[in-house]
Design brief:
2 domains; Endonuclease, Chain A; single chain; nine-stranded mixed sheet; elongated; Alpha-Beta Plaits; alpha+beta
Length: 415
Amino acid sequence: MNSPDTHEDETSLFVVFFDDMKGSMALKESMTTTWDERAFQKLRKEHDALLTQIITRDHAGEVIKSTGDGLLAIFYKPSTAVECAIEIQEKLHSHPHLSVRIGMDMGEVRVESIGGVKRDLFGRHVDWAARAMELADGGHICVTRSVYTDAFSWITKSRIAWKEHGLYRIKPGEPALEIFEPYNANIARPMESLRAEKLPIAPGPAQPRVDQAPPAAHRLVRSWEAVARDGRDFAEKGAGMMYWFRVPLGGVSYPEGFRNFLQPALANPRISKIRFVLDSSVPIIRQIWTELVCPLVEEWARRENRDFRLEQDEGGGRYLENATPPKSFAWVFVDLSLEFTPCFKLMIADPDTDEATEPEAQIFLSTAARTARLKDGTMQTVRIPDAVLRVKSHENDSLLHALNSVANQWDSLFT
């Protein structure tokens, strides 16, 4: 057992959270003049109590210390950290006196503990979280790219929107930070700009700008958020039949991924059939599909007042829409353990319609690991796409023909 005076140092990976009360010195002076200093101290205690309750609820995070007019805290998950920060700003949105600014970064930090209780944090990620906070106005949140990348992938609340502010240097000689702002689009607007030196971001090979890429027969897209945008574009502009062959289900098994990859295809009237070929040799695939993906499809259909009829058996299933023209969303479970074809999505013409379409595909090159919670409470590793090759028909007919041949191999199972 640690004695009360035992000092310990260790390093751990955390989301580092800073906040402070906007204009605290002026506010203290004003409240002291109007009432007395106790009024300001009461307001500060109200601030500390509200934030501590939200941060520590369900063991989401820990408050490390008071900074005088704010708090230093840690969170264990980026998505939870962002949701809690949004909740704090929602609670304070209409407060007559209290407005806070919040900043966050994520990385390995040195934790100083006394008697087993965390007392302070040290390291560059602590500094960067503080710098991110300095960029935020009262009522706003600034996070670095590391927080944004993971939080964006797992945020479950549709009201949370994001603004990409760009690259900023707060103090001369310090590294620049790429800043993103999460906000509740129902009650707030993001900041127009940040009060610091903004630097240009030169697109590099690791993070190409999808919206600036020149037309090409094939294009490599990397980083999850860029892949998500490309997946949405693929579904929104496509037509005909869409095949998903052994694609990583993590991309569609949680709300944010579903909204980017599958929902646009369901909503697109030019896509008549959506077909998934799923690997039955991996038992967890069936469970993820049944417990996570199908409920998202059903929730979307109810929200959009779409009338789908479910038909299923051990080999697969389908949702058939009672509409004209009809739409079908189907899946089959087959043993793909000996199949060496890459994971891909394919768009081809539907012979049952007159809709003309150019064949194209997305070939999944790599994935990143994430976790998903199933109905029984267990956490399972899922894969989300973070690099794809976008292939169009001109100059790549042979590759698209090969992918179409793979799709045709299983096509009879859908009829």
